[in-house]
C-alpha cells in the first residue's frame, strides 16, 4: 500500500505545482502578511516587550508563523471536498483503496509542494530581519520535530471539515470558518500569551495551538525540555485522535451517501 500512498502524493504534488501562478500568489500573500505583522508589532513593542516577547523574539515568532501558515494552508482541501460535492465519492467506494488514506496522500503531496517556497521564504526572512535564534541546539532540533506534525494535524482538521460537505453540500463557508479558527487559536493572529486567561485555556484545549504557538514556544525557550516534549506528545496525540475521529465519522456518513440524479 505504501506505493499507492506515494502515487497519490505524487499526483497531488504535480497538480499543485502545475498552477504556478496560484502557487506563487499564495507565497507572496504570506510574505506580505509577514511584512504587515512585522510593521505592526515593531510599532507596538518598540524597545519594550509585550507578553514576554521583545522585538527580537517577536520577529522569530512571526517568521515561524509565516512558515507554519504556508505549510498548513497548502493542502488540497478543495480537491477532497469536490470529490464529495461532485458525487465522485460514490466511485471511490467501489475502489479497493481506503478513502481517508487516499485523501491523506493527496493532501500531504499538495503540502509538500509548498515546502521549497516555505523554506526559501523563511531563509530570506531570517537573513533580512535577523530574528532571535533558538535558545539551544536541542531547542532547534525539537522545533523542527514539532513542525513535522503540521502535516498530519492539518490533514486531520481539513478532513473533518470536508466531511461536513455530506451535510451542507457546500464547502466555502466551512473553509472560511476553519481557516479563521486555525488563524486565531493557533496564535498566528495574536500570540496566545496576550489573550485573557480563560481564552488561553480554550486555545490550549484545541489542536490549533500546535500550528504556531508550540513550535515558537519551543524555539524561544518559553518551555523547558520536558515541556517541549510534552507539547510534541500532545501534537502526536491530536494527530492520531483526529485521524481516528475522521474515520469514525466517515463510517457513519458514508451510509447516507446520495448521488444527485441517482
UniProtKB/TrEMBL annotation:
Keyword Transmembrane helix: yes
Pfam families: ABC2_membrane_6
Keywords tagged on the record: Membrane, Transmembrane, Transmembrane helix
Transmembrane segments: 21-40, 60-76, 107-129, 141-168, 180-206, 226-250
Name of protein: ABC transporter permease
Source species: Glycomyces algeriensis
Amino acid at each position: 500500500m505504501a506505493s499507492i500512498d506515494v502515487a497519490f502524493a505524487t499526483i497531488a504534488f504535480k497538480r499543485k505545482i502545475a498552477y504556478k501562478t496560484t502557487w506563487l500568489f499564495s507565497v507572496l500573500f504570506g510574505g506580505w502578511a509577514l511584512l504587515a505583522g512585522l510593521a505592526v508589532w515593531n510599532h507596538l513593542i518598540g524597545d519594550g516587550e509585550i507578553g514576554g516577547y521583545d522585538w527580537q523574539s517577536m520577529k522569530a515568532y512571526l517568521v515561524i508563523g509565516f512558515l507554519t501558515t504556508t505549510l498548513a494552508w497548502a493542502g488540497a482541501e478543495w480537491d477532497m471536498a469536490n470529490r464529495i460535492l461532485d458525487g465522485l465519492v460514490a466511485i471511490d467506494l467501489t475502489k479497493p483503496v481506503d478513502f481517508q488514506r487516499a485523501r491523506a496522500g493527496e493532501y500531504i503531496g499538495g503540502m509538500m509542494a509548498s515546502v521549497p517556497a516555505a523554506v526559501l521564504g523563511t531563509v530570506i526572512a531570517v537573513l533580512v530581519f535577523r530574528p532571535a535564534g533558538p535558545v539551544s541546539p536541542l531547542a532547534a532540533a525539537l522545533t523542527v520535530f514539532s513542525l513535522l506534525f503540521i502535516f498530519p494535524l492539518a490533514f486531520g482538521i481539513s478532513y473533518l471539515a470536508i466531511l461536513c460537505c455530506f451535510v451542507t453540500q457546500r464547502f466555502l463557508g466551512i473553509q472560511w470558518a476553519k481557516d479563521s479558527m486555525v488563524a486565531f487559536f493557533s496564535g498566528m493572529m495574536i500570540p496566545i500569551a496576550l489573550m485573557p486567561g480563560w481564552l488561553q485555556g480554550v486555545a490550549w484545549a484545541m489542536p490549533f495551538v500546535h500550528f504556531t504557538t508550540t513550535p515558537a514556544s519551543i524555539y524561544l525557550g518559553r518551555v523547558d525540555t520536558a515541556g517541549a516534549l510534552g507539547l510534541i506528545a500532545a501534537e502526536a496525540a491530536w494527530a492520531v485522535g483526529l485521524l481516528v475521529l475522521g474515520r469514525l465519522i466517515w463510517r457513519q456518513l458514508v451510509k447516507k451517501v446520495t448521488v444527485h440524479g441517482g
